[in-house]
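Now for my pick.
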Amino acid sequence: MTGEIPGAPPHAADSLCSERELAQARCIVRRLQKRIVKAVQQGKWGRVQALQHLLTRSRSAKRLAVLRVSKNRGRNTPGVDGVTWTTSEQKRQAVNTLRQRGYRPLPLRRVYIPKKNGKLRPLGIPTMRDRAMQALYLLALDPVAETVADPHSYGFRPARACADALEQCHNLLTRKGAPEWVLEADIQACFDRINHDWLLEHLPLEKSILRKWLKAGYLERADWYPTEAGTPQGGIISPVLANLALDGLQERLTQAFPRLPRNQGRTHGKVNLVRYADDFVITGRSREQLEEQVRPLVEAFLAERGLVLSPEKTVITHVTHGFDFLGQNVRRYGKKVLLKPSAQAVRTFYAGLRQVVRKSLHLDPGTLIQILNPKIKGWANYHRHASSKATFQHLDHLLFRMLWQWTRRRHPNKNRHWLASRYFTTVGGDHWVFFGWLPSRRGCRKVLLASASSTRIVRHVKVRSELNAYAAEWEEYLHRRRLWRARRGYPALTGALGSEVAALQRAAQAEPESEARSTPTLAWPRVPKTRGRVREA
């Protein structure tokens, strides 16, 4: 990870500051973050606190914090004060308002979004200033969270993704003597129930600021309500707070079920944890072990933090029956373990496409394709690392039938030959490719509907579990992994992992001469070509 804020564009030439000033700011923040990581590794928590104090008072960090909240997707969503930062003058003034003395956060604006089960999920939307303050302190807290995090925690962490968690499940269940039982666990209302006293006692963050965020309350229909527990879903720093609250579970399991030497039988080595945010799975050698030993340990660990397991989502399953995790079904077929898109994920995606098509009867084909293509490509890219080819083909068939009915409803008096020639064309050997036209500078351009089955299935190479994206010793690994992905034909990376190396190189080039004397130039080694299957990059 770099000093660049996740979610900010890699070349954010913004009117807030010049490109060179932005690169220098990233360089300064990056250097402080590396020093924080080193202090945590050495156990010098007083030095950690001093470096965090220096970082949160740095003007470079304040610029990056304002840039993040003014560039992300929620930049046009105001808080209770109705203020958004749209002009360069507002952003420059916002940098000057990020002061700790006299700071008092405003209440959150409460909104609700629907969940899969039909219930509503409450979200708390902070004001722009409070979001920027959270982004500022996140720059100082995230290096600590990365250093003390569980190795097999993959949610809301830089350079990690859902595909890494799923690949870890595959690795655990395919090795020799693999566990055969799995505890699927889900924490009930995790963000809403975390104990405030536990957070204030254990989190390495400025206590006065953290207490103000936790006790700010929220406004709903012009009424103020206090917040006695939990972190607001919608705050920038909330996912990291939740991760810090749940970190330590893997160490607790390792202490209770140590891995024994091979000559003594690795019966306890079958207890493994894979966690993504508040969803996690734990493997075990038997149902009894998971019910009588593992589950009570997990419940006691969560009780210390004011959390409980969801009774409806926490089940124990045999691997031959399969279990759903992060939208995919993990199941053993004979001697093989396959990952496929889960039935619920397929139904949800298909229902979303059907809703779009039904509401688009008045649209022309080109506009409809423009709406559908990002959804199809995004869903297919997420599942391209699993055994998804048959599922992709089935979805393409269902989508064709859906669009055929759409054309019939638009032209009830036309025959099928006229409809086929009007809305479908031939591409390669496929004679039923839905197409349309969109305006362009040269008139009109032809657009084709994306096909999920044309997505190439590529086995994902899991990131190393001990990776610390803020540590200096992992910079070369991240660069080599980025080059390897490009050579293998992976899609271009976005967000923190995709822009981290480029930001480091720009920061090194833009570094002042006085600072460059004390800090060596970042020179990446030449990556040799690899042959055969690469197991880890």
